[in-house]
Design brief:
The chain is of the alpha/beta class. It contains 12 helices and 10 strands. The protein has 2 domains: about 60 residues; about 325 residues, Alpha/Beta hydrolase fold, catalytic domain (Rossmann fold). Strand 9, helix 11 and strand 10 form a beta-alpha-beta unit. Keywords: Membrane, Transmembrane, Transmembrane helix.
C-alpha cells in the first residue's frame, strides 16, 4: 500500500478520527486537580492535534504526490545507476551550426563566485549573476556553472553547449545548487566520462515573483517567455564562451520547470534542440498563483499547450526526454499521453521509475542520466551533426540502456 493510495488515505483518516474521538471521550473522564490530571489532559490534547495534523499531511501528500513510499521519504527509493532511458537514440536534427547571434550588449552583471576561484580548473566555477533582458525588459538572477574544462587550454578557443535549468514553483534558483546539486552532478558525469562539459545556466522561471507566469508572455503583462527563450541565451552567449542559440542549447527543469523546458523547446526549435522534463506537465496551469495569463487570447493559450500543438500543428524538429514514476499517478497518465502524440521530426525518450514522488529525491536520481542524454544531443549539434559517441569515443556509454521505441500518434479527438 503506497503513501498516495486511496486505501492508505482512508486508513489514516479513519485512524485519525478514532484518535480524536477517543481524545474527546477521555477529556470528559479525566477529572481532578494537580499535575497528574493536568498532564493527562495535556497529553490527550496533543494526541488529538497530532492526529489532525497527520490527516492533513497525508491528504496534502496524496494531492501533490510529494512522497509515494517510505523509501521515497528516506531517500533510498532511487539509484541513478538503475535508471533506464527508453526511447530513441541521440540523433538530433542536423543544423548548420551557426544559430542566431544576439546583439553584443553587456547585459550580465557578475556579483560573486560561489566556489573559490582557485578551484576553477579542478571543480569548475559558479557565478552569481543578474541577467537583464533587452527584448523583455525583465531582469533575473542566474547562477552560471562553468565546468573545469572551460578553463582548460584545450577549450580556450572553443564554445561549449549551454543548458538552461529551471526549478518548479514555488522555488528559487539557489535550490538547483543547494538541493539538486546540479554543478556537482555535472562534474561527476564528466569525470566518469559519461558526459562532455556543458555550461549550466540555473535560473528561476518565476521571473516576476511571486506570480507564476508559467514561462508565458502574459497578455498585457511580463514577457517571461521572451526573457527565458531569447534574452537569457543571447546574454550568456555574449558574455561567455557558450554556443550561440540554435547551435547547442538545451533546457531542463522539474515540475513547472519541466513544463517550461518542453514548451520553450517546441516554441523555439531554432534556438533549442533538446529538452528534459522531470515530472513536468503539458498544459499551462491557471489558478490564483498565475492570474489571467492569456486575456482571452486563444492563440496564446494554444501556444502554451504542448499537447494542443502536437495535435494541431506540425511537430517541431526537437528531442525531448520526459520522466515520471509509476506511483506518480497524477503525472504518469499525462506523460504517457504526451509520448503517444509525439511524431516525426520530433523525437522523444522517457524515464519511468518503478517508484518515486514529486520531490527532489526522485529528480536527483533521474538527473545524471538526463545530463548524459542532453550532453549527447547538444554536442552532436555543436559538432554539426556528428554523433557525440564517435569512433574516438569522446563520450563513454552511460550506465543506462537505450533502445528504440515506436511512438504512435494520438488520434484526433
Amino acid at each position: 500500500m503506497g503513501l498516495t493510495s486511496s486505501g492508505f488515505l482512508a486508513l489514516c483518516v479513519a485512524f485519525g478520527l478514532v484518535v480524536i474521538g477517543l481524545a474527546l471521550w477521555a477529556l470528559s473522564r479525566i477529572s481532578g486537580r494537580g499535575p497528574g490530571p493536568l498532564l493527562a489532559r495535556l497529553g490527550v490534547l496533543v494526541a488529538a492535534q497530532l492526529a489532525a495534523l497527520a490527516m492533513v499531511a497525508v491528504a496534502v501528500n496524496d494531492n501533490f504526490q510529494f512522497y509515494t513510499s517510505v523509501s521515497d521519504i528516506t531517500g533510498t527509493a532511487n539509484n541513478a545507476d538503475n535508471v533506464v532511458v527508453k526511447g530513441v537514440d541521440p540523433q538530433p536534427p542536423v543544423t548548420n551550426g551557426k544559430g542566431q547571434q544576439g546583439k553584443p550588449y553587456d547585459s550580465v552583471q557578475i556579483h560573486s563566485g560561489i566556489l573559490p576561484a582557485a578551484t576553477a580548473r579542478t571543480s569548475g566555477e559558479i557565478l552569481d549573476t543578474t541577467v537583464r533582458g533587452a527584448k523583455s525588459g525583465l531582469s533575473s538572477q542566474a547562477f552560471v556553472y562553468l565546468p573545469p574544462a572551460y578553463f582548460s587550454p584545450a577549450y580556450a578557443h572553443r564554445r561549449m553547449p549551454g543548458l538552461v535549468v529551471m526549478p518548479g514553483y514555488p522555488s528559487t534558483a539557489s535550490n538547483l545548487i543547494m538541493r539538486m546539486n546540479y554543478p556537482w552532478a555535472m562534474e561527476s558525469q564528466i569525470k566518469h566520462h559519461r558526459a562532455k562539459p556543458m555550461v549550466l545556466v540555473m535560473t528561476n522561471e518565476t521571473v516576476t515573483p511571486p506570480r507564476d507566469t508559467e514561462c508565458t508572455d502574459v497578455a498585457h503583462g511580463p514577457k517571461a517567455e521572451t526573457f527565458l527563450a531569447r534574452d537569457l541565451t543571447d546574454a550568456i552567449s555574449a558574455k561567455f564562451r557558450v554556443d550561440r542559440p540554435g547551435a547547442g542549447w538545451g533546457l531542463m527543469g522539474d515540475s513547472t520547470g519541466g513544463f517550461c523546458a518542453v514548451k520553450l523547446a517546441m516554441n523555439y526549435p531554432h534556438r533549442f534542440t533538446s529538452a528534459v522534463s522531470l515530472s513536468g506537465y503539458y498544459h499551462a496551469i491557471m489558478d490564483f498563483t498565475t492570474g489571467d495569463l492569456f486575456g482571452g487570447n486563444r492563440h496564446l493559450q494554444h501556444m502554451n499547450d504542448p499537447e494542443w500543438m502536437l495535435r494541431h500543428r506540425p511537430a517541431p524538429p526537437v528531442s525531448v526526454l520526459v520522466t515520471t514514476s509509476r506511483t506518480e499517478t497524477q503525472v504518469l497518465p499525462d506523460t504517457r499521453k504526451f509520448l503517444s502524440m509525439v511524431k516525426p521530426p520530433m523525437r522523444a525518450s522517457s524515464i519511468i521509475l518503478t517508484s518515486g514522488g514529486h520531490n527532489f529525491g526522485a529528480w536527483k536520481g533521474e538527473m545524471p542520466p538526463s545530463l548524459d542524454w542532453l550532453s549527447a544531443h547538444l554536442w552532436s549539434v555543436a559538432n554539426a551533426g556528428q554523433p557525440a559517441t564517435s569512433a574516438k569515443r569522446s563520450l563513454a556509454n552511460p550506465p543506462v540502456t537505450r533502445h528504440r521505441a515506436v511512438l504512435h500518434q494520438r488520434p484526433h479527438a
